[in-house]
Amino acid sequence: MSAVPDILAVGEPMLEFNAAEDGPLHAAGSFTVGYGGDSSNFAVAAARSGASTGYVTRIGDDEFGTAFLRLWEREGVDAAHVVREPGGRTGVYFIGRGPEGSTFTYYRDGSPASRLAPADIPEEAVANARLLHLTGITQAISTSAADAAFHAMDLARRHGTLVTYDPNHRPALWPVERARAIVMRSVELSDIVLPNIEEGRLLTGAHAPEAVAEAFAARGPRTVVLKMGADGALLSHDGTITRIDPYRVERPVDPSGAGDTFDGAFAARLLEGAPPVEAARYAAVAAALTTTGHGAVRPIPSRAAVEQAMSA
Ligand SMILES: Nc1ncnc2c1ncn2[C@@H]1O[C@H](COP(=O)(O)OP(=O)(O)OP(=O)(O)O)[C@@H](O)[C@H]1O
Ligand SMILES: [Mg+2]
Hints:
The chain has 312 residues and is an alpha/beta fold.
């Protein structure tokens, strides 16, 4: 890893407690611990695809903050700009396996990351990076975190750093009108936008995938990648639309983190000079492989694993 990360992500990491047995969360007796938080997943995915990557956040000086520092150290994700708050409690969430599918319960109110503010954004690191990644979740957790995200985008634009943005709309975090206003403004400030089809429809009002991609592109970003789950993705670059076929996996068991992995893998390949179509094909394979294991981070594939799958 070089001293100056090429890719910087800003957001909230959260420890994941995934119920080990089927049944409602209140009856769960044991949990498998994992790592979550869309922007942290992104950073790990980019690092595993070979990019020099750094992360900006606030965590507590609690055990869960330590768990994340250890993760980023293992993964080679630079944490020089991670602030540890004395007495802070790093956010956590619980996944239950109810009869209607997975349930997500978040304990993140008052988390250190919700106190992210413009002063936490390291201008020199943003200027020295080649790509800055932000997400709608980071903007939804608090007004100061939303201000931090806009400040980071502004710094990136002033210093010629590419801005990538994933709306990652979570209806539980904010009302849709506020989300739409902030997300669509962020799209205008971004070079590359990576929504999924559901949030794309909700935010743009368009329906057909091509129309959704075009609605985002009309706001200014040069590149839009619309993620469509098992249907793959749609790339719009300089006005040309290309379908990215899904990579067929035998048994998808857990889609969590697939979108974040797509984003991180795409960013990593782009910075190596890959044409967007090639980067998107690589990212679709990386994201598909992520669905074959439980948890967000553990199944994120290495560069070698993606290349092996692509050549098979
Ligand atoms: N079942 C699947 N089979 C093959 N590829 C998949 C599958 N599910 C997801 N993918 C790949 O992963 C990419 C991202 O998945 P998805 O569209 O679910 O993103 P997302 O909704 O942003 O995810 P997230 O829940 O992480 O926010 C897809 O564009 C596709 O390339
Ligand atoms: Mg997503």
